[in-house]
Design brief:
four-stranded antiparallel sheet
Length: about 240
């Protein structure tokens, strides 16, 4: 049977169109929620939400259309439940995906990799039971999410967050008011401000989360702080996926 004929048969069946629409809807909804999270600079953003929503929708097709990949399940008494195997697989894959999530200081990385492992396992389940059409659609959508969505994510407007720590000599500490004003002039807003005084080491420290609409402001801030003699040490750690 030729590929063209096989494709014609697929699209002649309304169920295949229904599967495609469900997967596309899941991708769109997950992506929309992820856009909001990406805009606010959260580690689990655009692609992560899209992949998780797509993978869960894909696995639900296994149950909804079980009569297509195993007609015997709908004939009288059910003696076999292959979905139990899928549940065990996805539970184990969850632990594997968790191992790819790394916390580097205040930054969390690897969430999109974990989501891609999860949906790859879901696609493998569908191929294993012979449910090829949704597996093919999911593969195409996954590759598009990991490539095209990355391009979209890098060009969409977003807020950038960073953990900011700065230490002054105790005798030359910049007051909080002027410090906030200087950060504001450079395009930052401040949240979760903490203070630390170490008399033995003779320094006063501010620790906070800063937010900006332009990533270049982080570099400008670092350049400005490097010229201040009163600054003993500073650290700017952008958050990200």
């Amino acid at each position: 049977m030729s590929l063209a004929r096989l494709i014609d048969q697929w699209f002649a069946d309304p169920a295949y169109l229904n599967m495609t629409l469900r997967l596309l809807a899941a991708l769109a909804v997950g992506g929309a929620i992820g856009l909001e999270r990406s805009y606010h600079g959260r580690p689990a953003g655009f692609r992560t939400h899209a992949l998780v929503c797509l993978s869960t929708s894909l696995l639900m097709l296994v149950t909804i259309y079980e009569n297509r990949w195993f007609p015997g399940l709908t004939q009288g008494r059910v003696a076999l439940d292959p979905t139990r195997m899928a549940q065990g697989i996805m539970t184990g894959i969850g632990f594997l995906g968790a191992g790819t999530i790394m916390k580097e200081g205040p930054t969390v990385r690897g969430l999109t990799t974990a989501a891609s492992i999860w949906i790859t396992a879901a696609i493998g389940v569908l191929i294993g039971i012979g449910f090829y059409y949704p597996a093919l659609v999911a593969t195409i959508l996954t590759l598009g999410t990991l490539s095209v969505f990355r391009w979209v994510e890098t060009r969409m407007p977003a807020q950038f967050y960073a953990h900011f720590t700065i230490r002054f000599r105790r005798s030359a500490t910049m007051p909080e008011g002027p410090m906030r004003e200087q950060l504001s002039q450079m395009g930052f807003t401040v949240a979760n401000l903490n203070y630390r005084l170490d008399a033995a080491a003779d320094f006063f420290e501010y620790r906070m989360v800063v937010r900006t609409s332009h990533m270049d402001n982080l570099r400008r801030l670092a350049d400005a702080l490097a010229t201040l003699d009163s600054v003993r040490e500073f650290r700017i750690s952008p958050t990200g996926d």
